Amino acid sequence: MENSFSVIPLFPLQVVLLPGAHIPLHVFEERYKTLVRECARDKKEFGINLVLGGRVHRIGCTAILEKILRRYPDGRLDIRVQGRKRYRLTEDYSAEDTPYFVGKIVFLEEEPAPIDPVLAVKARKMLSELLNKVYKGKEQPASFFDEERELSYQLAEYSGLDFSQRQELLECPNEHQRLEMLITHYSEILDKLSLKDKYISILKMDSSRLN
């Protein structure tokens, strides 16, 4: 279900912001320095849309400025933002009345879909297995999850998704589909890691025969 239109400042980036996620940004263009100053002053949100291959993806996520981490002498800023709500950009963005881009958006609600608890347990277990394989037990995956936030978005932050995959996750209309996507992703990576271990063992065996 979609709500009424809203108009918000836009910050198109080669970044996918997920609801609830915290990410750092380096702001160096004058128009976006102005955007950050105005959003900090007015305590208002702005939108982040992925720019990839010359294309601006229409599904984005609003961001709230959490903190200005560093101010540089030339005016550049390091900031940290938090993702809030998914939206769809309904028209091409413009910068006619402001130095930065603005766009008309519609906020996206979650589709009503039952969440299979078995699916959630499986996704967590597979991510734990994946991280243990990668870090060889030296680092443990995060065991604490915020019950107020969708599990899939939290798992995604540890999952090694590329830009396209993160965008696909953001565009999923419900938690069930996001968890299914992550489980498929984990299965593919775990299969590749198993093959890697297999070939490493074969190479070591062949090398031992030469000695």
Going by CATH, the homologous superfamily of the largest domain would be LON domain-like
Top CATH class of the largest domain = Mainly Beta
Structural class: alpha+beta
Structurally, the number of domains stands at 2
The CATH topology of the largest domain: Archaeosine Trna-guanine Transglycosylase, Chain: A, domain 4
State which percent range the strand residues make up. 25-35%
Number of H- or I-type helical stretches: 5
| Secondary structure tally: strands | 8
> For the report, how would you describe the main beta sheet?
6 strands, antiparallel
Low-confidence region ranges: 202-210
Q: Outline, from the CA principal axes?
A: globular
| Radius of gyration, in angstroms, nearest whole number | 21 Å
Please trace the helix and strand order, writing H or E for each element. EEHEEEEEEHHHH
What's the CATH architecture of the largest domain? Roll
End-to-end Cα distance, whole Å, is: 68 Å
What do the pLDDT scores average to?
86
* Percentage of residues in helical conformation: 25-40%
